[in-house]
Hints:
B: MetI-like fold, elongated, C: 322 residues, MetI-like fold, 14 helices
Amino acid sequence: MLPILSVKNLKVYFSRGKKIIKAVDGVSFFIKQGETLGLAGESGSGKTVTALSLTKLISEAKFLGGEVVFKQKDILKLTSPQLQKIRGKEIAYVFQNPVSSLNPVFRIGTQMVEIIRLHQKKNKKEAKSYALEMLERVGIPDAEKNFESYPHQLSGGMNQRVMIAMALSSQPSLLIADEPTTNLDLTTQAQILELLQKIRREQDLSLLFITHNLEILKRLVDRLAIMYAAQIVEFGESLFTRPLHPYTQALLSAQPGYEGRRQILKGEVPSPFDFPSGCRFHPRCPFKKAICEKEEPPMQEREKGHFVACHLK
Amino acid sequence: MNKLTLFGISIIAVLILLAIFAPLISPYNPQAIDVDNILSPPSRTHILGTDSLGRDLFSRMVYGARVSLEVGLVAVGVSLIIGVLFGSLAGYWGGRVDSLIMRFVDIMLCFPTFFLLITMVAFLKATVFNIMLIIGLTSWMGLARLVRAEVLSIKERDFVRYAKAMGAGNFKIISRHILPHTLPPVLVAAILGMGGAILTESALSFLGLGVQPPTPSWGNILMEGKAVIDIGWWLTLFPGLAILLAVLGYNLLGEGLRR
Amino acid sequence: MFSYFLKRLLNLIPLLLGITIISFAVIHLAPGRPAYLKEMDPRISLEAQEQLIKLYDLDKPLFKQYLNWLKRVLRLDFGNSFVDGRKVIVRIRERLPVTLLINILSMVLIIVVALPIGVISALKPGGLFDKWTTFFVFLGFSLPGFWLALLLMLLLGIKLNWLPISGLKSFDYHQLSFWGKNLDIIKHLILPVSVTAFGGLAGFSRYVRGNMIGVLKQNYIRAAYAQGINKGRIVYKYALKNALLPLITILGLSIPGLIGGSVIFESIFAIPGMGRLLYNSAVARDYPMIMGGLVIGAVLTLLGNLLADLCYAWADPRIKCK
Lengths: 313, 259, 322
């Protein structure tokens, strides 16, 4: 089956003064129809920039290269009007800060109706009843009342449900959730995750789920990609059980409830102004060899559907 | 440093030179009345023309630079003293002191600027010093707010806590550890304030409520020029340009320092 | 909303008291007794001096003086003008409407002109348009408003003879038709209103620009793009409403400058408003008039700020719904 989205060698560079920041530097992955792909990594590794550039939401980028093929079209080559037909309609987003992602000066209902009528042929009345239906579907009690509310009157969790309702209202084929539960308290986190899972089951929806929290991903995703220093270092199904890259191993061993010897990583995440030569992980790698400093490791399929970029065997 | 900042500095440098060397630079006595040369347009003998008493405009403007420079310095000096004192008291002590001082600032800001100015002028004698004092007394509120905000953020910093823990007194903490850190933004505000003070003084003098003739100031030259605006355009054009340039100089310098 | 309103009203009381205290302090600016009594200003007749002593109870202790004065101020009794003996409050009431009209018109002008300038420069900070407007803003900050008024008067009034330069009405006003009368007043207002507005233009367009740049960086703007809304709608509906809210407060804060400016511009254009009244009173040392004008001017500013706050509360759902 063809993947619904495939990203090849994506590069996003920013400039700050005379320096170049390589926020995403040669990222490739794909998402299959109906699956959930997790994208994990420490903050600053380029996850969010990757997510945003999938529909060219990075207008301030100095350089945007590679391919993002979605339903046989290269998104990076589309014009603004073409992009507007994909954003929110075919590819929808749910962001990290639900409260600040909704416009504070418009009612929730107004914002929902605007999006619904933007992507679907509905008159105001139809759009309103559809919005109410969506609010109920994402588990918002008293939809009629909350339709008239402003974002600040609802909790973070409720706002995130609204964002999800808006994202799902036009039945997108791909939902990109960028740390959707990070700023919520634990109980709310669990509820939102449950909601996302329920929706995925009901709808034939592909999901790209981005987080630094591996615990969440373990329960939610079909496959996992690990990002480190603007690149994907490991990618596949069996990462949780058989991690091959030393970085993935270290991340997993840092999880609570991990049985076995914990690896503590030395050093810090490298600066995007100046990445190390060769394998970008080598200064922190406990198993590094001479070749790791010189040559960038290629992405190889070690097992079926399990890719890793590492010189170690 | 960018070109505009440099331009600002050179304007102010010229202003300072004019003020210091006024007697050497001005070709005529600024008060010398010359009935044979009333309202003569700019010419070789009077490069900027003469006024309705035949006095040389250029010479009067050179001496006017003294007033403008002084007003900027003294008025801002007064507002600095009040603003820094109130601002640091409010920011450092907080609580009642803070709300009392800030309320006072709010109240002062309720008065339409020029209403307060001309009222005070009417009650005091319009000497150059009083004018400068009054401008200072009515323009310290912004500085107080600025200093308060800076002090509030600095007093939470570790080095201040450390100084406190080491037993430093309040006065020493404020003067040694806090105020020096507020200097950059306060300096910018002070320089911008000098431009503002020049504008205020010239407006007051233009209204006849500021620096009193025969002492020349750019504002009162404009006032005298207004009476003959239809036949002596130079008396309106040049002093105004001088004010514009001087204020622009301070604004450019202030903006340049902000970065 | 109601409790917010109540709170703001209660807040007014200390501010009003403060205004009276400061105004009262101005009378006593000089150490000891008021300067005008010490100096024996020849412009004040002996009779006027006695009137002053009586009006402000200057022969009584300070606290008593203030209380008596406050009692009368609360009844809007500022005494009678030295110049024509009429009641201060009556004279102010006559002059106030013109000043308010000019200030309101110039506020409208400021908004209409500065808003698009600010928004367009915010769309491309550092772009060509932004650079030019920054330049003009600097010029605007440095330009003495009264000088601009003189230049416009010289050019448009005297040299080209397009606009009248003094007063509110022409000599033949009474012979004009209804529309002619209106047109006449409008013509007289063009210069004063534009010059009054000029002072606020530079600052206001800067605020619009700054706010707009800030808002365009917010999460909800990125989210709106991600939802496929087009740029024009995002800028002019989603971003603008957010950027405009704080500007209501800024407009409120600009009131003292505007009203204060009326002293200068009404004097230049010989407009019979409150600013000119106050100016003439200052020149004539008409103390009851000056004190009345000062207190009324401050109270007007206070009310203007209150109005701005209420507008803000009404427009911003984050306050309205509390």
